[in-house]
Every structure is written in C-alpha cells, then in structure tokens.
C-alpha cells in the first residue's frame, strides 16, 4: 500500500495533481516543479523538506492561492483553490509566514483582528472579543493586546502571527519555517504550543521546516521535494530509509546522529 494513503482514507484536505511551476527571468527559465502530486490527509501534520530552490514556500503559497502554477490542479477541501476566492481561502486556510508578517502600524490586537474586519461583517465588539480569545489561546497576555510589533520579542511575534492565522477558525494551517529565528527555549515553547493546538483544534497542518527537532517533534508524515517533484512521502523512519542523495545529506550527513536520537525520542516517528 502507498504510505501516503491511510487505510480507509477520507477525501484529502489538500489534493495536488500534475502541478508544474515555472519562473522566468530575462536570462533564464526555471522549472521548479514538474508533474508534482501530493495529498494531505485530515488531521495530519505533513512536513515538506527539500533543498534550496526546490519550491517549498512556493508550494505553500500556491495552496493559499497567492501564486498560480503553470499547470496542474490544487484543491482544498474539495474545491479548486482558483475558485475559492479571498474570503473563502481565509476561512479555510491559516498561514503563518516565516517572519510573522505583522503590520507594523497596527497593534497586536489589530493585527489579529484584521482578517475578521476585512472579510466578515461583524460588530466591532465581537471582532475584539474573538481576537482576544485567539490572543490568549496562543499564550499571549491581555496586556499584550495594545503593544506594537516593534515592542515584541521574536517569540511573541510568532505567537501574534499564529493567532491571526487562526482567527477565522480555519481547518487547515500552513507553517513556513515556524521556529526560524527563535532561541532554543522560545522554539521549544512554540513547538509545544503548535502540538497542543493541532490536537485541541483538530487542525490539519502543512509545514515547511529545515529544523530537525521541529520536524521530528511535530510531523506525522514527511514529503521530500527533489528532482522537481515529491520523491517520497511517509513516516520519518521510512523517509530516512529511502535511497536518494538529498535524503542522505539532509538526514544522515553531519546531522545523522541527531536524526537517530530524535527517531528514538519520538515513537510516533517510527
């Protein structure tokens, strides 16, 4: 049986078929993805890894509808992304960008509330209440609501951006390098938060990360991008055993000892 398809699988939350991504400059034409297929199943944490230039973040942006592939189809919850529209995408998909992407002129609470104000017709009091619930859900305090992004630590920026990604209660959450730039203590706390939210909110998560600790602690399945496509998907132990130069270098090169330690530490990864 294909390891990417769970037994008695429901419909995938994300279904990518025959995707090709092409970028052109005056000097060159770059084919990033070619006939790429990938399915994301309900309730899983699928992590995408790959070398530089393999289009990991591009793939997330295409799932969100921010970029269009040259060919192929992407469906989210059974509907083509190209037909969902801005409001529909926001209600289905939350996106945590690598550096948070908070609006510098808005307070923390205004940042969190922004999707509700832009895309819903709700009383101001209800918008504020919903934003405050999400602010506290991610571990921020009520007194943080009126702070500006410039007053926040890196970990607080990530948490505020996560609250904004979740304010519309989307079933799908996309994470682009969620622990990048965080010190070890902040990173550990943020991963613990993500794990709790994944469980408590019954989220489906797609994550791009190069950090092995984050990868092994959160992932239920890994997809490896190489050679312009997904070359293997499966639990970490199966992926590490797959014979490919990138997989050997990424998991079994200088970081090989740490990868083996993490496999033993997180039994679900086996």
TrEMBL record:
- Per UniProt, residues of the ABC transporter domain are 16-252
Q: Does the keyword section mention Transport?
A: yes
Q: Which GO terms describe its molecular function?
A: ATP binding; ATP hydrolysis activity
Q: Which SMART domains match?
A: AAA
Q: Which Gene3D superfamilies match?
A: P-loop containing nucleotide triphosphate hydrolases
**What are the record keywords, sorted?**
ATP-binding, Cell membrane, Membrane, Nucleotide-binding, Transport
Q: Which Pfam families match?
A: ABC_tran
InterPro entries the record matches: AAA+_ATPase, ABC_transporter-like_ATP-bd, ABC_transporter-like_CS, P-loop_NTPase
What is the protein name stated in its UniProt record? ATP-binding cassette domain-containing protein
Native species: Ramlibacter lithotrophicus
